[in-house]
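Hi Q.,

Before the meeting this afternoon, I wanted you to have the dinuclear copper ion prediction in hand. No need to reply - just skim if you have a minute. The sequence and ligand are here:
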Amino acid sequence: MRLPFANIPIWPEGASKAAFEMDLLYLVIVGLTVFFCIIVFGLVIYFVAKYYAGSKADRSNPTFHNMPLELAWSLIPLALGLFVFGWAAKLFVEMQAPIQSENALNIYVVGKQWMWQMQHPTGQRENNELHIPVGRSVKLTLISQDVIHSFYVPAFRTKTDVVPGRYRTLWFEPTKVGKYHLFCAEFCGTKHAEMTGWVYVLSPEDYEKWLQDNRWGMGDEGVTVAQAGQALYEQLQCSSCHAPEQRIGPPLTGLYGSTRTLSDGRRVVADYDYLRQAILDPQAVTVSGHEPIMPPYRGQLTEQEVIQLIEFIKTLSAPEAPPVAEAEQSDDSGGNG
Ligand code: CUA
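Predicted structure with the ligand bound:
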């Protein structure tokens, strides 16, 4: 479906599922604004022309109240305002909420001064470029390595702040093959304006070909993000404490998505943010029943490496664990910690 003046370049090309509705919402808001501007200014001009000082207008029987009129000009704009709010909130939530699609492509994005680093789940990495297939939901997990950046793809009508210290997620579904601008939309230092790139939306076949042509890491097989995490896990000798038979650190099997009780009594869900903190600053989140002896890895791992470790830990969940973990998670969603 096309908007009436889609051929007039008043906004960038729309290339995601949300773009059409976003543009429609924008048009409705502009339309409402113009409509009420015309009414208000029209009446102002009309009354000025009629009642300017010295005009011969009839000033007998002035009206002070008109209940139906006053109710109308209060309630109609209220209803319209709430309608726009509800619509915009629905759209916002749809674009920000964790995507439920099993088929979604998970991409990990690290923003740093002054570039975007992307990691595909199958291991391919790229800088300031993102290759994705058309017609498939793409979920981004984003974090900054230094200051606040903002990941902005106008053609997808989507933007999110990328902040240090916690993960953000964003998803979209590209609908059109093409090449689209990627910007950083948050002033982040002297080279902020150079922190730009391109999103390439490819046909599924071209995307497969791109994946084949861009393997990285050890040998021809390529290394997935989780496998890179496993290599790090071994290199850092995490297993000397976390292997189940060691009984020193908490075992990592089934950890992701489960609920943990910390030594200070807090109950937390072992999600992406928790695991990141447990790696970088473990003593702040010591698990109940364990000594706070794990050394902090803050400053020793890049954000990309932390993501790799977390993705490896995710793969350690027992096959039957996820449904249980999810049930626990939703039970817990009422209370925060
Ligand atoms: Cu990063 Cu501006």
